[in-house]
Give the backbone structure.
Amino acid sequence: MLDSYRDLIEGLTEESTTLRELLGSPVPDDLPADASSLLKTARAREGAVLRRAQSVMRHENVNLRSIENEPDVLAAAELTDSPEVLLTAFEHDRGELVSLLINLTLKDWERKVPHYALGETTLAEEIEEHLSWEEDTLPTFEAALG
C-alpha cells in the first residue's frame, strides 16, 4: 500500500516538472488560447486540491464536492495573471501538496471522507483522481502548443 502512495507522490512531482519543461522557463506571455485556458484550470485545480487535502487533515467534519464545483475551479477562466505567474503559483501549491502527502500515515491516506457526489472517498482516491486528470491533460497541452 505504501508503495502506491509513494507512486502518487512521485507522479505529482514528475507531472509538475513535465509541465514546466513543456511550457518553458519563463512561460511566454503569448501562449495559445487553448494552452492558456488549460494552465488556468490546472492552477485553479492545484490550489483547490491543496486546500481540500489540508482541510481533510485538519478537520473532522469535511464534506467534499466534485472538484469541478470548487469555486476556484469554476472561476479559473477569469484568472488574469501572466502564464509565468500562474505556473509559479501552481508549482508552489504542488510543493506544498507533496510536502503534506510525504508526511501522511497510512491511516491518513485511507481515512474515509464524505463526498457529495461519491458518497465517500479517501485522500488517496482524491490524489489519484487529480493525478489522472493531469496525465490526461498533458497531451492536450502538447497539442495546444503545436
User: Anything to note?
Assistant: Residues 2-145 form a domain with the Four Helix Bundle (Hemerythrin (Met), subunit A) fold (CATH 1.20.120.450). The two ends are 39 Å apart (CA to CA). The first helix runs from residue 2 to 23. Residues 67 and 129 are 10 Å apart (CA to CA).
